[in-house]
Amino acid sequence: MATSKVQHDDKILIVGAGCFGISTAYHLLKRGFTNVTVIDRSDVLPAPDAAGTDMNKIVRTSYSDDFYSRLAHDAIAAWKKVEEWGDCYQESGVLVLGSGGTSYATQSYLNDVALGSRINLLENAESIHAVFPSDVRTGAFENYHGYLNFDGGWARAADGVSRMTAAVVALGGKVVSGKPAVGLLKQGQKVTGVRCSSGEEINADLVVIAAGSWTASSFTELNIGRECLATGQDFLCIFGQSVATIQLTEEEAANYRHCPVVLDFASGFYAFPPTDKNVFKMAIDHAGYTNYLPDDTTPEKSTSTPRTILSHGSEDGLRIPRKMVKLLRHSLSLVYPDLAKKPFACTRLCWYTDSPDGDWIIGPHPSFEGLVLATAGSGHAYKFLPVLGQLVADSVEGKLAPEIARKFALGRQYAESSYSRRSGHMDLEDLSVQELCEPKDLEAESS
């Protein structure tokens, strides 16, 4: 349903202070909107269990879809503005690998070339080895090829969100923590605000839902779960991706600190250089995990709901499936065999909101006036933090180019997948508590 013309003094309520929400608030305020409030379910901001506030995130232009390549190019130009972002962005370079060759990696390379990115083509194992410091032992990389994109790296994720939140407040916006939204207020088909779990009602002229992986479970009246079941295809798939870290010594970290981000589009494995606290992080874009729970009001329905540090505590809420620990260790051994023998310090399921085609959902809800969605980050939104809100602000103002509006529209005809993160199909599994890792699973690998 088309949203009525929004005035600059209208009350705009944004649900979610993560990547989508806080960037949207920033860009609306920069355009002259004067009454912008962001609420978030977490008592602490940035929310410690939000996907976009992990310790670090890859910043890359390497996409098979040239829209994202170009937008990432713009985002990197913004990240480099030190007066706004400090040292959030670290240009370590991104090593893009494709064992055996993947169409995604090939098209990404062509898009990066078209952007004029600084690139070294790596056609064999020897050239890949040369990318790493000489004192770092790496895997064989047999049958691998790829390229090093110098115009990319990683960002300090929580720091970036904190900086943009401070900018929102400085521009006159309000950011309020500890207000979980659990439903919409409506007059007929017009959304007039949200209802919080405390019973508090917050009225607004326009509501923007940017609740990430809590979208479906917080706003069950949108019927996202039912539509998923009716079509037999995931409409908004809430799933967890396995992440693990290794605590290095200062000396160990110094050896790996000058390595690029490693991103293997064939296997889905990726790894970062150590942080300033000597923490090495890796993850694998593999089969995701859903966590279906009955809705409170209609127990016969089931919605995938995040299982995190806030809902299940600092120990139980961070565990990943045991088999993913093994897969992470194996994948790590193919890149950094010495690190693969070390104990894992911490694990985490990073909960994403995936759309069927990997494209975001940005735009007005087709059935409710006064409601805009900005969600379905599909595991690749954070790098766009400085510019992402421009798209949502364009949608709010009715300025989004028609072809972009169609690309991100709710209820669009979904292709099988645009594979915004990498090529290949990912089969989802429901999370089994009995299969979650125990401390012994994280111990150092015996020789």
Account of the 3D structure:
The structure is a single chain. With 447 residues, this protein is an alpha/beta fold. It has one domain: FAD/NAD(P)-binding domain (3-Layer(bba) Sandwich), CATH 3.50.50.60. It has 13 helices and 24 strands. The strands form 6 sheets. Strands 6-7-5-15-16-17-14-21 form an 8-stranded mixed sheet, with helices on both faces. The chain has a 6-stranded mixed sheet with strand order 9-2-1-13-23-22. A hairpin with a 4-residue loop joins strand 11 and strand 12 (201-203). The protein is globular. Mean pLDDT is 87; it is low at 225-238. Belongs to the MSOX/MTOX family.
- Mean pLDDT metric: 87
User: Major sheet: size, sense and barrel closure?
Assistant: 8 strands, mixed
Question: Assembly type of the shown chains?
Answer: single chain
What's the domain count? 1
What is the CATH topology classification name? Answer: FAD/NAD(P)-binding domain
Structure keywords:
447 residues; FAD/NAD(P)-binding domain; 8-stranded mixed β-sheet; 26% helix; membrane; transmembrane
Topology, please?
Elements (H helix, E strand, L loop, with lengths): L11 E4 L3 H12 L5 E4 L16 E4 L6 H14 L2 H4 L3 E2 L3 E4 L5 H13 L3 E4 L2 H5 L16 E4 L3 E4 H14 L3 E3 L4 E7 L2 E7 L4 E3 L2 E4 L5 H4 L5 H8 L5 E11 L2 H7 L4 E4 L4 E3 L7 E6 L4 E2 L1 E3 L7 E3 L4 H4 L9 H12 L12 E9 L6 E4 L6 E5 L9 H12 L5 H7 L20 E2 L17
Parallel strand pairs: 1-2, 1-13, 2-9, 5-15, 13-23, 18-24
Antiparallel strand pairs: 3-8, 4-8, 5-7, 6-7, 10-11, 11-12, 14-17, 14-21, 15-16, 16-17, 19-20, 22-23
Helix pairs in contact: 1-6, 1-12, 2-4, 2-12
Cofactor: FAD
Pfam families: DAO
Protein name: FAD dependent oxidoreductase domain-containing protein
